[in-house]
Amino acid sequence: MTxxxxxxxxxxxxxxxxxxxxxxxxxxxxxxxxxxxxxxxKIEIIQWVYGEIVSxxxxxxxxxxxxxxxxxxxxxxKVLQLAEIKLKNIEFYILPTNRGxxxxxxxxxxxxxxxIKQVSxxxxxxxxxxxxxxxxxxxxxxxxxxxxxETEVFYNNxxxxxxxxxxxGNGSGTLLTTEExxxxxxxxxxxxxxxxxxxxxxxxxxxxxxxxxxxxxxIAGDDTHGHVDDLCRFVNANTVVLVxxxxxxxxxxxxxxxxxxxxxxxxxxxxxxLNTVYxxxxxxxxxDGMRLPASYANFYISNNAVLVPTFNDPNDRIALGIxxxxxxxxxxxxxxxxxxxxxxxxxxxxxxxxxxxxxKKK
Length: 362
Hints:
CATH topology: L-arginine/glycine Amidinotransferase, Chain A
Oligomer: single chain
Strand content: 15-25%
CATH architecture: 5-stranded Propeller
Strand order of the largest sheet: 1-5-6-7
Structural class: alpha/beta
CATH class: Alpha Beta
Largest sheet: 4 strands, mixed
Helix content: 25-40%
Shape: globular
Distance between the termini: 39 Å
Number of domains: 1
């Protein structure tokens, strides 16, 4: 295994750990929306949804917003100011992008010997779209802007492609992912020829992951072909939430039940039995004949709140109640996402946490 901007011998000496999302953030990165094809006829409405998300997150951490231009920045500021959102915790960075889904195009922020290091995977627009050459520049620019040590991920001298939404970690060496996303050999193939062992070596060396829990398929309507952040998420070191479908006629019923079976008896890297809490699914949402990936699992854990997508569905209340019991230290807030999900993603897809380095004890 070889690396760029850092050699493996140096990495071997580092104590690497991928922090859990609920650990303290220095900031949250987002990309202000601009691609009208993602939200046909709704781009103006979507800006207000982003404004609501920024409002909640910025109360307890910085929000770093990537914009296409100075004019785009002014447009974002106008929305935020009209919504009476204070700008003192908000920073803007100019970089033209294809889209704003920073969960996937942005880098991972890893603790290396108690310092934050940036780990940058390759990005190819989910092996589906051809307009990604601007988005692929995001990690290098974040490294330059924030003066972060960056490691680009290579395996057998080839760049490894991976989106942030395809993995979810517990902060203690255990990772969730799906076979559908990472191992499919015909549809949206990220890394041709990769097997489980190859990914596990990459996750170990670059993210400090010692145990990978492999689920099967993701939810219906997910154009990423199986991202785990619409399916199953860690909420503490040994507990996950898994979405479930009770309607046997529904497309999600069989694959979600199979994932439930896979988690039975699963253990974390330190040998703890994995606890599973079940989240409902909202009723199917369809736009222009296309199933959309509506899921309560696509929540985002900020320093002060858990932002949960809601869909004008009776199960909204149930999902919020379940998550409120699991996150007693944070306010659980529903964010109306019927329009947002038209872009084939919701809150977790558009946010990316930058972990804070631990405070040194005197």
